[in-house]
Amino acid sequence: MTSIDFGTLLTTIFVVVNDWYQKQVKNTTRLKPGVKASMSDSEIMTLLLVMDYLPFPGETQFLGFIRGNYKEWFPNLLDQSQFNRRLRKLDGMLEKLRRSWVEQLVGEGEKYFLLDTKPLPILGLKRDKRYSDFAGNATPGSILVG
Questions:
Q1: Where are the domains of the chain?
Q2: What DSSP character marks residue 31?
Q3: Distance linking the first and last C-alpha atoms of the chain
Q4: Which of 53, 61, 92, 146 fits a disulfide with 116 by CB distance 3.0 to 4.6 angstroms?
Q5: Cβ-based neighbour number of residue 51 at 10 Å
Q6: Taxonomically, which superkingdom (predicted)?
């Protein structure tokens, strides 16, 4: 399996998201009153999609990584609370984007399609591991379902 560097991944996802946004959304949404947003909807959706595919423990760490390593790519990167606020407003739009991708991948006629992007913790040992019901039988870790 060939790896892709992070910069290429960011660029590719941004181009795909922005092309979809320009065709499907931009001319169909009304302008809202107030100051024009400094960070585009396409940039925010790109960061969210990239965050879904990479193993960062949380949003704070991911935004810190972007701020520390790719600040010149996202000069108007929002702080975490603003980022969350904008994400909540874009939730429906992001779902439309994902559905559009699914239709391109499998066609409109399919009733179900499952795409898993995050490892799920299957065992989290909180107490002393020597006295666990799972001692010697299981080790903590994650599993990719799919």
A1: 6-112, 116-146
A2: P
A3: 18
A4: 146
A5: 19
A6: Bacteria
Q: 141 — phi, psi (to 5°)?
A: 175, -165
Placement of tokens 């499998």 in the chain? 106
CA 131/CA 77 separation, integer angstroms? 46
Crossing angle of helices 41-53 and 80-106, in 10° steps, is 70
- Greatest mean pLDDT range, 22-31, 38-47, 109-118: 38-47
Is 0.70 surpassed by the pTM of this model? no
Contacting residues for 125 by C-beta, under 8 A, at least 6 apart: 132, 134, 140
CA count, 13 A, side-chain hemisphere, 63: 15
User: Which residue in this structure is represented by tokens 């998201």?
Assistant: 17
Which tokens in the block code for residue 88?
A: 């909540």
H-helix or E-strand spanning residue 7: helix 6-24
Residues 6+ apart with CB under 8 A from 72: none
pLDDT in tens, 74-109: 999 988 888 888 888 888 888 888 888 878 877 666
